[in-house]
C-alpha cells in the first residue's frame, strides 16, 4: 500500500456576526495535510456502510491515527464527509463520500 496521496483535514470556523450590517462574515477553513493511501471503496464495503452502491465513495488509509477534530477531508479539489471510521492498532481507515 502506498501512502503517497496528500489529503487535507479541514476544520471550519464560522464567520462572526456583524451587528451593524446584520450579516455573518466569511467562514475560515484551516487545513492539516497528511499522506494517505486513497482508493475506491469496494462493493462489499459499500454494502456494509451504505446498504447499497454509492458513487464517488473513497477509502482512505492513514499510517498513524489522526486525533485532532475536523469537519471534512479534501482530496484534490473535492471535499468529502466521513461516513465510517475505524481505528486499528497502528493505522486508521476512513470511508468517505463526496460533499456537494
Instruction: Estimate percent helicity.
Output: under 10%
Strand order of the largest sheet: 1-4-5-8-7-6
CATH homologous superfamily title: Bacteriophage SPP1 head-tail adaptor protein
Structural class: mainly beta
Distance between the termini: 29 Å
Discrete helix count: 1
Do you know the CATH architecture?
Beta Barrel
> How many strand elements?
8
- What would CATH call the class? Mainly Beta
Strand content: over 45%
Summed up:
With 100 residues, the chain is mainly beta. The protein has one helix at residues 43-50; strands spanning 5-13, 17-18, 23-24, 28-40, 58-62, 72-75, 78-87, 92-98.
Structural features, described:
It contains 1 helix and 8 strands; from the N terminus they run ββββαββββ. The protein has 100 residues and is mainly beta. The chain has a single domain, classed as Thrombin, subunit H, CATH 2.40.10.270. The chain has a 6-stranded antiparallel barrel with strand order 1-4-5-8-7-6. The longest helix has 8 residues. The two termini are 29 Å apart.
Amino acid at each position: 500500500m502506498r501512502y503517497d496521496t496528500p489529503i487535507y483535514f479541514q476544520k471550519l470556523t464560522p464567520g462572526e456576526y456583524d451587528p451593524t450590517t446584520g450579516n455573518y462574515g466569511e467562514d475560515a477553513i484551516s487545513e492539516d495535510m497528511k499522506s494517505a493511501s486513497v482508493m475506491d471503496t469496494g462493493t462489499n464495503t459499500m454494502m456494509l456502510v451504505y446498504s447499497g452502491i454509492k458513487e464517488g465513495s473513497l477509502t482512505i488509509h492513514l499510517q498513524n491515527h489522526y486525533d485532532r477534530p475536523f469537519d471534512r477531508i479534501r482530496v484534490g479539489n473535492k471535499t468529502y464527509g466521513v461516513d465510517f471510521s475505524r481505528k486499528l492498532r497502528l493505522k486508521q481507515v476512513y470511508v468517505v463520500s463526496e460533499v456537494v
